[in-house]
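Researcher: Let's run the pair from yesterday's discussion. Sequence first, then tokens, for each.
Model: Starting with the first of the pair.
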Amino acid sequence: MTITSNRMTITAKRKTAFKKDPTRQAADLQRENAGLVRIVEEGEVWPIERMIDTDARTDAAGHMEVELGHGAGRWHIYALHFDLPHHREAKGPKQAPANGRAVRWSDPLAPVSRWFAVQEFTLNDPRRIPTDRTAQDNIVRFSTEGLDPVREWWGAGLVSNSGYRPWDVNREIGSRSPNHPSGLAMDLRPIDGDIWGFQERFDAEWYNTGRWLGGFGLGAHRGFIHLDMREWGTPRRWGY
């Protein structure tokens, strides 16, 4: 999946690296060939032209491929180490729309629920803007009935690694699951970075108590937690 913009930037939240191979450790790549790694210091801001998310099933899960601005090339980044364009807006409460038809889908900041906006589902990619009425309604329902209560329980912002993916985008990144194309799934993480704490508490306080009746993918080790409501009433829990 690709986002295109001339004004996007990413900011390193810690010392990290751009890598040519997302499946290998930066130190191993550097020993092999220094040109395969570029060290990035905390606070560095880089302009990017494109950003490509990676499906959880691949060895590169948790990473995104970016094309840097000014001809600096294509590199892989570990998403948890960067402040990404679709994570920057304040997560304050919003006036939730009544249904999908009431959402301004072309506006990344338009609310789809009290705590979530269009950009969390589209990652600012025009190809991800839902045009199917059912998917639009599903996104509103999933956000309002599923994600908002989780956000309020956690008490802090949740950011999206991957939200709505139409079928062509879903296939492009190697997924055949209908969860994301239905508009009823999100791979997310807490903005405070306590992804293991979020996963453990959600497991104990939501899934194991019967409060969450949908899909729950334990992907903390890959930088995200998967939640979906596609088959609500048939709880499913799995590890990646």
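Model: Moving on to the second of the pair.
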Amino acid sequence: MELIFHYHHHSDYVSKEIEEYKEIVRILTDITDKDIVDEFNKRKEHGVMDLTGNDTPKIDTSVSKTINIILKNALTSKGWKKEAKIFSEPYYSKEKEFRLDFAKFDTSVEVAFNHSGSISWNIIKPFLASQFNHVKKDIQTKLAVIITATKEFKKTGGFDDAIGTYEDYIAYFKPLSMLTMVPIVVIGIKKPKSFYIETEKNKSKNRNIGRVVLT
């Protein structure tokens, strides 16, 4: 995938010294258009295993879940912990809101293809993970990475109009400056060169579904 980078709070210098960050960038750049198309079509045509062990067809309108799956498989295979807890105290450790998507040593990752209303919290979580707190910590972050879609990829990837984009995350840093005193790299995924997602109405299921169109 082609990427664009925004460095917040000296993260351009900090990231140069962190091997886990370099690993993230390698994983992202190694993902090809074909990888995304193949995984998207597999979910659509053949189904994937659900939590009960049954094959259940997944009907996606965007490549959001597809990229999430590819990243999860790639990161966990290299020792990244998924749904990493920020706090170790029982009440907070069981709350999803106080978890990071992935963490490895002192680097945390949020894969942010969700609603724009989640932008502030996605930015604040790495700050909580980086600071000492009255609540006992489970992780101490030195560098945070937020992976999201650029505006151009939002249009061509079939994403919902309400998702936050790379450009939105950058804009949020200004009003949240006092709450983001931690090095954060925002990585924007640029639009693919060889395909786009076309949304079409599925009458039998009464909902929109995505279809890959090769260019």
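Researcher: Give me one sentence on the second I can quote.
Model: The helical segments are 11-14, 19-30, 33-45, 64-76, 90-93, 119-130, 151-156, 166-172.
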